[in-house]
Design goal:
It is a single chain. With 512 residues, this protein is an alpha+beta fold. 27% of the residues lie in helices and 22% in strands. Strand 2 and strand 3 form a beta hairpin. The protein contains 15 helices and 20 strands. The strands form 5 sheets. Strands 11, 12, 13, 14, 15, 16, 17 and 18 form an 8-stranded mixed β-sheet that branches. Helix 8 runs antiparallel to helix 10 and helix 14 runs antiparallel to helix 15. It has 3 domains: 146 residues, D-Maltodextrin-Binding Protein, domain 2; 105 residues, Alpha-Beta Complex (Dipeptide-binding Protein, domain 1); 214 residues, Dipeptide-binding Protein, domain 3, CATH 3.10.105.
Length: 512
């Protein structure tokens, strides 16, 4: 789940002492980072929460990737070519190894495809390959992919990290496999085992090609409280950390800014309030529209981010294909909200009530829930908050559909795939359309876009899809936060772009 991105008993005297340790405690060969929760499964096909997805990207690579300018470049692939408008041929590097020193081959790509679309796992990433007709290993290092029709995301499909065929082909239980906590990856860091300890350590894979990373080890510490993370930053005990707007505006001083580079970009992510459309109370479009008029999105942005964010108006974000700047969310209108609720049969004698489910890990989202609760009360709507720890939230709420509304977020790629979230076929076990959204015209347009190679035509279709979704109000699109990162100036070379700063982390060094 790409945005759902970053408890423990931290209030101990020993930990308080640890906070006071000097910056010199950070070893030069170690990159010290944080995770906001415990990863669940590190098999890329099963890494559906943000924490697991973030960590798995250190361990697994796909055939291609984005570079610093969002251009598609080779990763495990050495090159590619289109034999025709449906057939893609990859030539793989011959020097890439799994962490057990077994060569990465085209058979691993075939195995990824067959596992994703098969019945051995329940994964929302199966939809990534829905346009693929066949995948064939011509030889160990040549892969042939045939698509059902011309497909505008033919290359992006293979950004999906590969999994090792030689380890998993005979595993009788991939969903519960030991591989999920003891992964054998193919990237430049490796993990011995996922254990319930305070720190999670990745180690340099010395046999990585074309060359191993400069830093020996990456240490992740579980810190759910952003205030604790900020204390770690101030004491120099972590090299990279996230700042919230309050910390950035009011708690960083000259000494902090001398130590850290501050990098701020609008996130390719948004937060939403999703309605369970399987629930009859939310099937009335007047209710959903009323709730949209009842909230003040700009107040959310102002209170939560102090100007370091913006209102989200649609499922397609600025800078990505399909963004439509003519789509605007309604401003708060209490009178109209009450009138629509009255039409739907609700008033002060029979108020509309519902529960917002969210997770305790994301403190900003928790505050957003409290603000929404206050805003909706002005229209006579009574809201209860249901807050759970992240893993319990995933297993008992998201994956089971056991919610009335859900306050959550998505992190999106530069070329988004509306099928996985918005097509009615994704309303299934393991799918990302867990709110149950169904619109036959949206389905048709998604399917039309999939067989279109012309990106301008795809963008126009996506704009229509976005307008229909916004009209239907399956979500209340809320806000897009800015990502504010503090990056130690000891890390070199560092170059920030609109699309991030970690694209060259294999080359990073920690200066003394």
């Amino acid at each position: 789940m790409k945005n759902g991105r970053k408890t423990r008993g931290w209030a101990s005297a020993a930990l308080a002492v640890l906070f006071l340790l000097p910056a010199l405690c950070v070893a030069d060969s170690s990159l010290n980072l944080t995770l906001s929760g415990f990863p669940s499964r590190l098999n890329p096909l099963l890494a559906t929460d943000t924490v697991s997805g973030e960590l798995s990207l250190y361990l697994f690579d796909g055939l291609v990737k984005y570079d610093k300018n969002a251009k598609i470049v080779p990763e495990i692939a050495e090159s590619w070519s289109f034999a025709d408008d449906r057939t893609l041929i990859f030539k793989l590097r011959k020097d890439r190894l799994w962490h057990d020193k077994t060569p990465v081959t085209a058979r691993d790509a075939v195995f990824l495809y067959e596992t994703a679309i098969g019945d051995r796992v329940l994964t929302p990433y199966a939809s990534t390959f829905r346009m693929v007709e066949s995948v064939e290993a011509i030889d160990d290092f040549t892969l042939k992919v045939v698509y059902r029709s011309p497909y505008f995301k033919a290359l992006e499909t293979w950004m999906m990290p590969l999994i090792p065929e030689h380890i998993l082909r005979d595993d009788p239980n991939l969903m519960g496999s030991s591989f999920n906590t003891r992964p054998v990856g193919n990237s430049f860091y490796k993990l011995e085992e996922l254990t319930l300890s305070r720190n999670l350590n990745l180690f340099r894979f010395d046999d990585f090609s074309p060359y191993p990373p400069a830093i020996d080890r990456v240490v992740f510490e579980y810190i759910q409280d952003p205030n604790m993370e900020f204390l770690r930053l101030k004491s120099g005990q972590i090299h990279i950390g996230s700042l919230n707007a309050m910390q950035f505006e009011r708690q960083t001083d000259n000494a902090f800014r001398e130590r850290y580079e501050i990098i701020e970009n609008g996130a390719f992510a948004y937060t939403y309030l999703g309605f369970n459309l399987h629930d009859p109370k939310f099937q009335d479009s007047r209710v959903r529209e009323a709730l949209s008029y009842a909230i003040d999105r700009q107040e959310l942005v102002d209170v939560l981010f102090l100007g370091h964010g913006r209102v989200c108006n649609s499922p397609f974000l600025e800078g990505a294909i399909g963004y439509n700047d003519s789509i605007m969310s309604p401003e708060q209108n209490i009178t109209k909200a009450k009138a629509l609720l009255k039409e739907a049969g609700y008033d002060e004698n029979n108020p509309f009530t519902f529960t917002i489910s969210t997770n305790s890990t994301n403190h900003i989202r928790l505050y957003a829930g409290e603000i929404l609760q206050h805003q909706l009360a002005k229209s006579g709507v009574k809201v209860t908050l249901r807050v759970m720890e992240w893993q319990a939230f995933l297993s008992r709420v998201v994956k089971t559909g056991n919610f009335e509304t859900i306050l959550l977020g998505w992190s999106l790629p530069l070329t988004p795939d509306p099928y996985s979230i918005w097509h009615s076929a994704s309303d299934k076990a393991g799918g990302f359309n867990y709110i149950g959204y169904k619109n036959s015209e949206v389905d048709r347009l998604i399917e039309e876009a999939e067989v279109t190679n012309d990106r301008e035509k795809v963008a126009a279709i996506f704009e229509k899809i976005g307008a229909l979704i916004v009209r239907d109000n399956p979500y209340l699109f809320l806000y897009i936060p800015n990502e504010i990162s503090a990056v130690s100036k000891k890390i070199t070379p560092l170059e920030a772009t609109r699309f991030g700063f970690s694209y060259n982390r294999i080359d990073w060094r920690i200066d003394p």
